[in-house]
C-alpha cells in the first residue's frame, strides 16, 4: 500500500473569493496496491491480453489464456483491500477513516465481492465511512466526465473524516491514481492514470462542457447492421448507425465535448476500422482504431486557448484558476 501525505495540497488551495472552511488535520491517502507493485503491474498486463487479445486458435492457447485469467482474478482480489467485512478492521487498524470505492457493480460481481455486507459492517463500526463513486474501467472519456464529481466527493469526505483515505479501483493503476492525483503518485510507484482525461476534466471545469456536432458514416450497403463502440460510450457499449437511403450511407450523428475519441465499427458482428476515416497507429499488440478530434477552431476563442494550454505537454493552473477549481470542489452538488 502506498501512502501520501496531505491530499488537500492538490485540491484545496487558498481561496481568494471564499471564506476558509475549518478542517481536520491533514490526512494520509492510501492508494490501492498489493505488497509487490511489480507483480501487480505484471498481473495487469496479463489482463489486457486476456480481455482484448485475438481469439486463440488452439486448445493449448485457450488453456494458457484461462491460466492467465485465473492468475489475474486471484491477484486482483488480493489487491482490492476491503473484499470482506474482516478486511475493514485491517484498514481501521492503520487509521483509515474513509474507504472510497471507484468500482462498478459489475467489477465487484466479477470478483465475488459482497459490497452490501461490507457497507453494513462499516456502518456498524461507526468510526469509518464507506463511499462509492463509480467510474467505468478502461474508459478515459467516462473518467474525464466523472472526475470532477468524484474528486469533489472525495475532497468533502476527507475534510469531514480526516485520518487516512483509502481510494481503490480494481488494480490501483488507473481510476484510483487519477482520482488522487497523477503527479503525486508517479514518484511513489508505477501507475497509469489517463493523464489526458485529468487535463480535460480540469479544462471542463474552467471553460464549460462545450459540445460540437460530429457525423460518422459507413459507406458499404451490403450489410444488415452497423454499430459503433468506444467514442463517448465506452468499449463495453454499442450504438447503432441508421441507414440513410438518400445518401446510401450508414450514419451516426453525435454531439461530443472537445477531445480525442477512439472508436471502432461493428459490421454484422465483425469489428473493423473505416479506412476512409482517421486511424491510430498500431499498439504493441497490433491493434488499431478509428479516431476523431473534436476542437474549437476559432483562433480568437479564450476558452479554446485555456483548453489548449491545459491539455498541452506542460500544463499549469494560473493563480486565478486555482481558487476556481477549489470553489468548484467545495460547492459541487453531492451525488445520491
Automatic annotation (TrEMBL):
CDD domains: E_set_AMPKbeta_like_N. GO terms for molecular function: phosphoprotein phosphatase activity. InterPro entries: AMPK1_CBM (IPR032640), Ig-like_fold (IPR013783), Ig_E-set (IPR014756), Prot-tyrosine_phosphatase-like (IPR029021), Starch-Glucan_Phosphatase (IPR052832). The keyword Transcription regulation does not apply. Residues 212-297 form the AMP-activated protein kinase glycogen-binding domain. Keywords: Hydrolase, Protein phosphatase. Signal peptide: none annotated. One of its GO terms (cellular component) is chloroplast. PANTHER family: DUAL SPECIFICITY PHOSPHATASE, SUBGROUP, CATALYTIC DOMAIN, PHOSPHOGLUCAN PHOSPHATASE DSP4, CHLOROPLASTIC. This is Phosphoglucan phosphatase DSP4, chloroplastic. It comes from Castilleja foliolosa.
Amino acid at each position: 500500500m502506498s501512502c501520501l501525505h496531505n491530499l488537500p495540497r492538490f485540491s484545496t488551495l487558498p481561496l481568494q473569493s471564499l471564506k476558509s472552511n475549518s478542517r481536520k488535520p491533514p490526512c494520509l491517502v492510501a492508494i490501492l496496491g498489493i505488497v509487490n507493485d511489480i507483480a501487480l503491474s505484471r498481473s495487469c498486463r496479463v489482463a489486457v491480453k486476456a480481455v482484448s487479445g485475438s481469439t486463440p486458435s488452439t486448445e493449448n492457447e485457450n488453456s494458457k489464456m484461462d491460466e492467465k485469467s485465473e492468475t489475474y482474478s486471484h491477484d486482483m482480489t488480493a489487491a482490492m483491500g476491503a473484499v470482506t467485512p474482516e478486511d475493514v478492521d485491517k484498514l481501521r487498524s492503520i487509521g483509515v477513516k474513509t474507504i472510497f470505492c471507484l468500482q462498478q457493480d459489475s467489477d465487484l460481481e466479477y470478483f465475488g465481492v459482497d459490497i452490501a455486507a461490507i457497507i453494513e459492517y462499516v456502518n456498524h463500526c461507526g468510526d469509518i465511512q464507506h463511499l462509492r463513486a463509480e467510474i467505468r474501467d478502461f474508459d478515459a472519456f467516462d473518467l474525464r466526465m466523472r472526475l470532477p464529481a468524484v474528486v469533489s466527493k472525495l475532497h468533502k469526505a476527507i475534510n469531514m473524516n480526516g485520518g487516512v483515505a483509502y481510494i481503490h479501483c480494481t488494480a490501483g493503476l488507473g481510476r484510483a491514481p487519477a482520482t488522487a492525483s497523477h503527479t503525486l503518485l508517479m514518484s511513489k510507484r508505477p501507475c497509469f492514470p489517463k493523464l489526458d482525461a485529468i487535463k480535460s476534466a480540469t479544462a471542463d471545469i474552467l471553460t464549460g462542457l462545450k459540445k460540437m456536432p460530429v457525423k460518422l458514416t459507413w459507406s458499404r450497403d451490403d450489410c444488415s447492421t452497423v454499430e459503433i463502440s468506444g467514442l463517448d460510450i465506452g468499449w463495453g457499449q454499442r450504438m447503432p448507425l441508421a441507414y440513410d437511403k438518400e445518401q446510401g450511407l450508414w450514419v451516426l450523428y453525435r454531439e461530443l465535448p472537445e477531445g480525442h475519441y477512439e472508436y471502432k465499427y461493428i459490421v454484422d458482428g465483425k469489428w473493423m476500422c473505416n479506412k476512409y476515416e482517421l486511424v491510430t497507429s498500431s499498439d504493441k499488440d497490433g491493434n488499431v482504431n478509428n479516431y476523431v478530434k473534436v476542437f474549437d477552431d476559432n483562433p480568437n476563442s479564450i476558452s479554446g486557448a485555456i483548453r489548449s494550454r491545459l491539455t498541452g505537454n506542460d500544463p499549469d493552473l494560473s493563480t486565478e484558476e486555482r481558487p476556481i477549481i477549489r470553489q468548484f470542489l467545495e460547492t459541487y452538488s453531492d451525488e445520491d
